[in-house]
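Researcher: Structure prediction, please.
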Amino acid sequence: MKTSSESPVLLPYSAPWHWQQFHAHFALRKLLGVEHLSDDRYTRSFRLGEHAGWFSIEPLAEQDALKLSVSESALGAIDQLIPRVRRMFDLDADPLAIAQHFSADPHVAELVKRNPGLRLPTAFDPFEQAVRAIVGQQVTVKAAVTVTGRLVSRLGEPLTGANPEGIERLFPLPQAIAEANLDGIGMPGKRVQTLQYFAGQIASGELQLSMQQGYLALVEKLCALPGIGPWTAEYIALRAFGEPDAFPASDLGLLKAPVWGEQGISAKQLHAHAEAWRPWRAYAAAHLWQNYSEV
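Model: Predicted structure follows.
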C-alpha cells in the first residue's frame, strides 16, 4: 500500500552535521505512539492546520542532505512542513561561523573541537515542547517522557490511515489537556494546575506561542504565567523555536558540566560568563549538555 510521497524531498545542510547527535536526543525523549526511531530513520505523527499525517527523516550517506518522506494525507502541508523539519534538525546553522564565534573562549572552544558538528535539536511543535517542559520541571527526562506519554495515551487522537510501525496517535490538542481529568497522571497538583492553565490560555487564544515579537517578549509572557519561571521559559524558547540565544542558566546540566571542574559553576557566574557567547548562547548550552552527558 502506498503511504508516502513518491518523490521524497532532499533537505541539504552545511557539513559537519551528525545524525548520531539527533538519534541520541530523540532516543531519550521519544513518545510511544507519536514517534518511532530506528538506526537510520526518525518518524513522527503531526498536525498542521487541517492536515494530519506523518513524516520520516533519513540521513544520506552519500551527500550532505536528509531525505524527507511524507504521508499522502499530509502532502497538502508540505510547504509548511519543510521549514519546520529544517528547524527541528537545525539544518540552516553555519557550523564554521559558530566555531569561530566560540574560538576565544577556552572552555567552549575545546568542546567545539571535540564535536564540531553539534547542532541544536528542537521540537516539531512548540505547544508539544512547552507541555514537555512544564511536565519536566524538577524531574528527570525519563520521568517527564513517562508522564507525557500518559497524556498521549489518554488524550491523543488516533491517526487514521496506513501508518508506519509505531505511529498511532497525534499529540493532544491544547483544549483536550486543559479540560481533561488528570488525576493519577503522575505530577504534583500544582504542576497539573500550571499545565492545564497554560493549555487553556493557548486553547482560548489568550496566549500565542510565537516569536513574532522576539525571544525576550515570549520569555516575559511565559514567566507571567503561574508556575512558569525563567528556566521553563528559556527552555521553551530554545527547544520549541531553536532560538539561538536562549539560555536556561540555572539548568543543572549546564552548571555541572565537567568543563567547569569538580565544583561546577553557579547560575549567577554562568549567566555572567555567557554574556560573551551572545547571540549564540544556545549553542554553548548544547555543547555543555553534551559535555555533561559524557560523564
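Model: Strands lie at 9-12, 35-38, 41-48, 51-59, 65-70.
Researcher: Thanks, that helps.
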